[in-house]
Design a protein that fits this description.
The longest helix is centred in the first third of the chain and has 20 residues, at about 20-40. The chain has helices spanning about 5-10, 20-40, 110-120, 140-145, 205-210; strands at about 45-55, 60-70, 75-90, 95, 145-155, 160-170, 180-185, 195-200, 215, 220-230, 230-245, 250-265, 270-275. The chain has about 280 residues and is α+β, with helices and mostly antiparallel strands. Strands 1, 2, 3, 4, 5, 6, 7, 8, 9, 10, 11, 12 and 13 form a 13-stranded antiparallel sheet that branches.
Length: about 280
């Protein structure tokens, strides 16, 4: 364990934290998140992202699909765009485009929203996988904002797992950004997350709707991990579905999906030495 790992362990097991079974589980998860982050910096992989926006009747208003080669580093990840396909509906016809951020008219709400969603939800430059850590409270820093409860122990895909529920310490969610609640399956042998599902811990406050004219329903995400080597667990799928209502009768049902595959370990000279299939 690194010096930082021991520091995390000391903080989370101090007298300020209840010495319960679930606290012990989450301590190990926090330490393993640090080591897993460092291990991911030795892998290159392929990432596919799809965002689809539908009108209330079900017709696709806009969608885009992007494929990247991702090279993680100690402080983040570099993504190289390999393929991009997009389309939008205009006057009853679908028009294609091949570059992110394409705008076809002065006020293009779909373009702005889909661009911001891709950046915020899947292209976080501070993480090795692009997924914002604040959506899934697994690191030591994020765990301090949540209360955890051990639901039970079960079997998942042939392995024993703990089912752990979490919710913000501030029930209102207004004293910080920690507005998520959900459940996680934690591998009982290696204390690594297997799946994490989140949803909003509260409805969006009324003043947000008044000021911004926007309402979001069904906002939530799910994340799945797979083991590739000792101590090396990668997120392999990530997604969510929700509905957005805005000004001027703007309505969209939105789905977000991301998959990671073709993991390849690198040596010190950054040459590929082997490949592992995600499945």
């Amino acid at each position: 364990m690194t010096v930082v790992g021991w520091a995390i362990l000391a903080v989370l097991t101090s007298t300020a934290v209840p010495r319960s079974e679930v606290a012990g589980i989450m301590v190990r998860v926090a330490v393993n998140q640090e080591s897993a982050r460092d291990a991911r910096a030795n892998y290159v992989y392929r990432q596919e992202q799809t965002i689809r926006m539908r009108r209330p009747g079900g017709k696709v208003a806009r969608e885009q699909h992007a494929e990247y080669v991702v090279t993680p580093g100690k402080q983040g990840a570099e993504k190289k765009l390999e393929k991009f396909e997009g389309k939008y509906q205009f006057k009853g016809q679908y028009v294609t485009y091949d570059q992110p951020g394409y705008t076809y008219r002065g006020l293009d709400i779909d373009r702005d929203l889909i661009h911001d969603m891709a950046d915020d939800m899947m292209n976080d430059k501070k993480t090795q996988d692009g997924i914002g850590h604040d959506l899934f409270p697994l690191t030591a820093e994020e765990q301090q904002k949540y209360d955890f409860r051990l639901v039970g122990k079960e079997e998942y895909r042939g392995r024993g797992v703990y089912r752990v529920a979490f919710q913000p310490k501030h029930a209102s969610g207004l004293e910080g950004d920690e507005t998520w609640k959900g459940e996680a399956l934690i591998d009982a042998e290696e204390y690594q997350p297997v799946t994490v599902s989140t949803s909003m811990a509260q409805k969006i406050p009324g003043w947000v709707k008044v000021v911004f004219g926007t309402d979001v329903k069904g906002l939530g995400f799910s994340l799945s991990y797979r083991k590739f080597a000792d101590g090396v667990w990668f997120p392999v799928s990530y997604g969510g579905e929700f509905a957005v209502r805005g000004l001027f009768f703007y309505r969209r049902n939105i789905s977000v999906a991301m998959t990671n595959s073709d993991f390849r370990k690198t040596d010190v000279k950054s040459t590929l030495v082997y490949a592992t299939d995600a499945h």
